[in-house]
Design brief:
heterodimer; A: about 280 residues; nine-stranded mixed beta sheet; two-stranded antiparallel sheet; globular; disordered N terminus; B: alpha/beta; Rossmann fold; five-stranded parallel beta sheet; elongated
């Protein structure tokens, strides 16, 4: 006897609310943390959400018991990243919101997110983007796999999930500089995807209206069993000592080609001793 | 004296320039030991000795590399426990960052990526927010695990040290890990690695499918070929050539940008280059705001003329 609800895939997509990279971004305060006004759903996380939705659609959709939950952590405003994910198509949202999270480094972030995933119970797949567009370290997916003791499949540029004899597994491609690798793992697993994997969809009017009725749960650190001293600035294993805006590059000489620009480039290279 | 452990992962036939840079930094901070993955041939062992490495740690199991990252991270963590280094240095590839990330969790140790300089107290200088800030950061818990960008130091000349001692380290194979079941080597271009290259010539939308002038100028300068996301998305060149926020971040001595507008996503990957030259038809392209020398013109005329002039002056 197979219970349909048990056969369904529970997919968690981790999304981050990040300062919009189209504008100048800043670091401020005595703790030298990133200014988070003008923030949006990280562009790179949209690929993870799209990958999750495509997996669900390829295996019978929501009716087959599959479910995509968008999870974020951060200040109250970060909930808007989850709301956007719900508009695009996630079925439920979770926001870990706690003042003590401010200033978390990768170690603190992965600790808090691992606790949320455990709190959610039987999760089959944790999907993330390849990096956040603000921290840019790409450390968190690997640390999540380590903390959750799950297979790590990172930088996937293709991803397929298949079911055989009732158990799920995945096949992914990982494109390195020297090799292209095929990677296989049984679920549950932690997977990060690159911006090559798909073309993320946009929220449509129907999705925006439907999102208003979808569940969005707010959790505190206490709810997920993490002590405030283990995250945020207090729990960070790294510290930013100084942060200085890089002086803007000054504009150099700009010429219009009058038939000799190639030669003038070489003159410039010679003057700079770059030949 | 501080011992700094350097992770060298699959060098193949011989050490890469980036490995030599890491060893140079480690020697400057005290002394270098090496955690080594892959086949250790005689020439590599000799060179490590000549570069002052006294001890090479190797995994007891040959198949750590069959499991994605987890096996390598477990080996690195076990080596740190066995040898108690003052810090660990790794390259700055995605995989090296992930090995550091997982070993960091196992060792309760902080990780800092993208280092461009390391102080005697292991404080790290790096760029953040797409190169718009320079920060100094420090690991305050555990053994600092630092991934270092290429081209940050000049490689010190090798000495004449003897062969290092080789020590085998036992590490548990991960119970739950993804298995690498297939591996296809990519065609080698014969050009330098993008992240290690001193000169990069990059093409964007303006090359309109034809990278020939970009490649010819790169070859005349002994440089690597890069691309904007528009060019890789269009399929004109392989994705691994992409420079920018979701591609590679490079800091070469010379970056020549051809037919690239220089929007923020591209700038994020190259604005720490020492000298930037830009060629673009559109005088309003943002790339001209950061170029040391800019040409408003047709890259199909300007680049071949520059290539021919370089070849002429060298002959």
């Amino acid at each position: 006897m197979e219970d349909a609800s048990q056969a369904g895939l529970d997919i968690v997509v981790l999304v981050k609310h990040v300062p919009d990279a189209q504008f100048d971004r800043h670091i401020s305060g005595e703790d030298r943390t990133t200014v988070r006004e003008e923030s949006i759903l990280s562009e790179l996380d949209e690929y993870a959400l799209e990958a999750a939705l495509q997996i669900v659609e390829a295996h019978g959709g929501e009716a087959a018991g599959h479910r995509v939950t968008a999870v974020t952590m951060g200040p109250p405003a970060a909930a808007s990243a989850v709301k956007k994910a719900l508009q695009i198509g996630a079925h439920a949202g979770v926001h870990l919101s706690d003042e003590a999270l401010a200033g978390s480094d990768a170690a603190g972030t992965s600790r808090a997110l691992a606790a949320v995933v455990r709190h959610l119970g039987a999760v089959d797949l944790v999907l993330t983007g390849m990096a956040s567009t603000d921290g840019e370290t790409s450390l968190v997916p690997a640390q999540l796999a380590e903390r959750l003791d799950l297979p790590q499949v990172t930088f996937a540029s293709s991803l397929e999930v298949q079911q055989q004899d009732g158990s799920w597994s995945l096949t992914a491609r990982r494109d390195g500089d020297v090799y292209s690798e095929t990677v296989e793992a049984t679920l549950p697993a932690v997977v990060s995807v690159t911006d090559q994997i798909n073309e993320p969809r946009y929220p449509n009017f129907k999705g925006i209206m439907a999102a208003k009725k979808k569940p969005l749960t707010t959790l505190s650190l206490e709810d997920v069993g993490v002590d405030a001293s283990e995250v945020g600035l207090a729990g960070a294993w790294t510290r930013v000592l100084t942060a200085d805006p890089r002086p803007p590059r000054s504009q150099g000489t700009i010429i219009s080609d009058e038939g000799d620009a190639g030669i003038r480039i070489v003159d410039f290279l010679a003057a700079q001793k770059l030949l | 004296m501080a011992t700094v452990l350097v992770l060298i992962d699959q060098p193949g036939e011989g050490l890469h320039k980036s490995h030599r840079e890491l060893l140079t930094i480690a020697s400057g901070l005290g002394g270098a030991a090496v955690a080594f993955l892959g086949d250790l041939n005689e020439a590599v062992a000799q060179e490590l000795g000549a570069r002052g490495v006294r001890t090479i740690y190797r995994p007891s199991s040959a198949d750590v590399g069959e499991f994605l990252v987890a096996g390598k991270a477990a080996f690195l963590a076990a080596t740190v426990r066995a040898s108690s280094p003052s810090a660990v240095l790794l390259g700055n590839s995605f995989e090296a960052k992930e090995i550091a990330a997982r070993a960091g969790v196992q060792l309760t140790s902080g990780v800092i990526t993208d280092a461009v300089a390391i102080g005697e107290d292991f404080s790290v200088t790096k760029s953040v927010l797409a190169g718009s800030y320079a920060v100094e950061a420090k690991v305050i818990t555990g053994t600092p695990l630092i991934t270092v960008k290429a081209n940050t130091v000049d490689v010190a000349p090798a000495g004449d040290g003897g062969a290092p001692e080789v020590v085998t380290v036992d590490s548990a194979m991960p119970a739950r890990a993804a298995r690498i079941t297939g591996r296809t080597a990519k065609a080698a271009s014969g050009r330098p690695e993008l992240t290690e290259a001193r000169v990069i010539v990059a093409g964007g939308r303006g090359v309109d499918g034809d990278f020939t002038p970009v490649e010819e100028l790169a070859d005349a300068l002994g440089g690597a070929v890069g691309a904007s996301r528009a060019a890789t998305d269009a399929g004109w060149i392989e994705h691994s050539a992409q420079i920018g926020q979701t591609g590679k971040t490079v800091s070469p001595q010379l970056y020549i940008s051809a037919g690239i507008s220089g929007a923020i996503q591209q700038k994020a990957g190259m604005q720490t280059a020492k000298v930037i030259i830009a060629v673009n038809k559109d005088a309003d392209s943002p790339v001209f705001e950061i170029a040391d020398f800019g040409v408003v013109g047709d890259l199909f005329k300007v680049l071949p003329q520059a290539t021919a002039e370089i070849i002429k002056r060298r002959s």
